[in-house]
Design brief:
Blueprint (H helix, E strand, L loop, with lengths): L9 H14 L4 E5 L2 H10 L1 H4 L4 E5 L4 H4 L2 H11 L4 E5 L13 H6 L3 E4 L3 H10 L4 E8 L4 H13 L5 E8 L1 H10 L7 E5 H7 L4 H8 L3 E4 L3 H17 L4 E3 L11 H10 E8 L3 E10 L8 H4 L15 H5 L31 H7 L7 H5 L12
Parallel strand pairs: 1-2, 1-7, 3-4, 3-5, 5-6, 7-8, 8-9
Antiparallel strand pairs: 6-11, 10-11
Helix pairs in contact: 1-12, 8-13
């Protein structure tokens, strides 16, 4: 089937669902890696339309959600300093740190500003040479080129009052960690199309072959997701395990060469800690030695912060696909968008936020069947 050009075609949606139902003969568990895909799935009820044999597991595809607690606390400490203008995308402002969030810091007098691009923060540094301007550089591979460009421009303009607090993470090592965890139930992946539009698909065939799982690069519209599920189910039923690109209108095998060159010049691969999951080797980026002067973590000497996650929040299990949000005892009670215990309830791409926003307040039969006793959990890392 050709890739989807029309997004509002109920007849095509029906045909895709009919083909999935006609193909599936046994239970299969697929993980969508991207938080944007999770929100589309829950908003449109895609998981409820699928046959009972096909379960969708929500993965760690929300960059806000996986930004570790110690990095949030570093951001809070830097943002509270009187000589700093701290810049961030809006969805980071309510992510809870150990005892407060960026909104609280702003309310207490910190100069915290919402920007729409790291280049906006760069312009603030140019206009305020007497202030240190810090941009909170989080995200998967998708946001890395723009953040790299900002640092590259800062060096070209000799702006020594600009820096990044970097918490970039990479998808392929996360898939590796999920597949090697003892508790893994995932049998196939819907890979994030926007990540692959930047990075290409070169890292995925080897992952699919080594772990014997289908990897289908998928977009974000409902028909994109249904097409990705259709292809993954076909592979599983045939005993196949390979990469498929179901999003060719945006994704090429080689990715975006200009973006890749910028990333390679400014960043280098590093181990990263994922909030609620733990350390994953080679799963992130840090600034190279050539750009280390623009690293806010070192500039403000906040490298020694150590934290512990609150025990009541089960966001880590949700991010690993071990439970659904409704299986957390605090969901919709102690933890709501107004009183979030974890980032998965705050972020625009968080699974808990999706369930709360679209009123998925109780388990569906499929979720009840997938429940794993907490004492049997074996988290990644």
């Amino acid at each position: 089937m050709k890739y989807i050009d029309e997004f509002n075609d109920p007849d095509l949606a029906r045909r895709l669902l009919d083909e999935i139902r006609a193909t599936v003969t046994r239970p299969w568990a697929l993980m969508e890696v991207c938080g944007g895909q999770t929100h589309s799935i829950i908003r449109h009820g895609i998981d409820q339309l699928l046959p009972d044999e096909v379960e969708l597991i929500h993965g760690p595809g929300c960059p806000v959600c996986v930004t570790p607690l110690d990095v949030i606390d570093k951001a809070l400490e830097i943002a509270a300093r009187p000589d700093v203008i701290f810049c961030s995308f809006g969805d980071m402002l309510r992510v809870p740190g150990t005892d407060r969030d960026l909104f609280r810091v702003k309310g207490e007098g910190g100069d915290v500003r919402v920007v729409y691009s790291p280049l906006d923060a760069l312009e603030l540094a140019r206009r305020h040479p007497d202030r240190q301007v810090v941009f909170f550089a989080i995200g998967f591979e998708t946001t890395a080129p723009a953040n790299a460009m900002a640092v590259h421009q800062a060096r070209r303009l000799a702006l020594d009052n600009f820096s990044l607090l970097v918490s970039h993470v990479r998808v392929p090592p996360a898939i590796e960690a999920i597949m090697t965890a003892p508790s893994c139930r995932v049998q196939g992946f819907l890979a994030a199309g926007h990540v692959c539009s930047v990075m290409g698909t070169a890292e995925y065939p080897e992952l699919a072959e080594r772990h014997r799982v289908p990897l289908v690069v998928t977009g974000f519209e409902p028909l994109d997701i249904l097409e990705g599920i259709r292809r993954a189910v076909h592979q599983l039923e045939r005993g196949e395990h390979r990469l498929e690109n179901a999003y060719p209108r945006a994704v090429r095998e080689q990715g975006n060469p200009a973006a890749l060159r910028m990333i390679e010049e400014v960043f280098e691969v590093a181990d990263r800690n994922w909030r609620g999951i733990g350390p994953i080797p080679a799963s992130g980026w840090r600034l190279t030695d050539a750009f280390r002067a623009y690293d806010a973590e070192h500039r403000f000497d906040v490298t020694g912060i150590r934290t512990e996650e609150p025990a009541v929040c089960r966001a880590g299990e949700i991010l690993q696909g071990l439970i659904k949000p409704t299986q957390c005892e605090a969901f919709g009670k102690a933890c709501t968008p107004r009183t979030p215990l974890g980032a998965t309830m705050v972020s625009n791409e968080g699974a808990c936020a999706a369930y709360y926003l679209y009123r998925r307040m109780t388990d569906t039969p499929a979720q009840q069947g997938s429940r794993i006793p907490r004492e049997e959990m074996n988290p990644v890392g």
